[in-house]
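Researcher: Structure prediction, please.
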Amino acid sequence: MTPLTIREFRPEDAEAAYVAHRTGREHLVTTPEALVWRNAQEQPGAYFRTFVAEVDGQVVASVRCAVTTGTTRTGLGHAGGSVLPAFRRRGVFTALLAEAERHLAAHGVTELQCWVDDDPGSLAFAAARGFRLGSAAQFAGRDLTVPLPPAPETPAGVQLRAATDWAEDPYPLYLIDAEASRDEPGEAALDDLGYDEWRHDAWDRPDIDHALTVVAVVDGEPAAMALVQTDGRGAYWSAFTACRREFRGRGLSKLAKRESLRLAVEAGCRRAYTSNDVTNAPMLAINRWLGYERCAGERMGIKTLG
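Model: Predicted structure follows.
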């Protein structure tokens, strides 16, 4: 292979990095604009960086990495990346991962967490580079040209409203997300998610679709929501479906997500994707009812940095 260059992301890399990210993995929904936006931000304490691999002037892979925030655990970092299929097994991602590890270690990270595709080659790659396996998750997809199941009856006192109604003050929606995030399965509890961080990571990013994000309101109080990203190319991604603890068990998450998918169909989306921890039985049941089918899996890889 011709010489490999590892360098920091530039805005003109966005389309190539997007193609490397989604080729063969259509369930990973993002946009080039979101990549540019994310790399232009300076979130305090995260030290977010994207590094790209370049061969003969062509960007063929990228890795995104940051110190993990939103948790009371310290020393955590995360990374994720992808390589164009034609350039795999050539040392490209090994070089990118090493650069990410150096960057994170310089900012105090002692434990690196990376989602790894649940296939023999990817798992062997991770094991050979010092990762042990943790939790498991699955991706599921749905053809939005296939009719949705009939909507359940909306209980008295419940309204389904678009998140655009909170455009000026989304704090009530943050409260839903922050409370539900504490109960998400995983290696690091998201038990310290601040409002500014949530605004940055969830609400203000350019691929969040506020019109398709649906909030279930109970007697005037936001209780559950289906937060949505779209790519403008027909793909819909469930960023987070959440419900406050005191309102659980009433079917509000199911109502919100089903209504969001109905609006997505009207907006011209053709394919929907979601991801869940394999132990999250309530959301897995909702997604099965909605017609999602498993399309891929991933495992959390955990590595101690020296």
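Model: The mean pLDDT is 96.
Researcher: Thanks, that helps.
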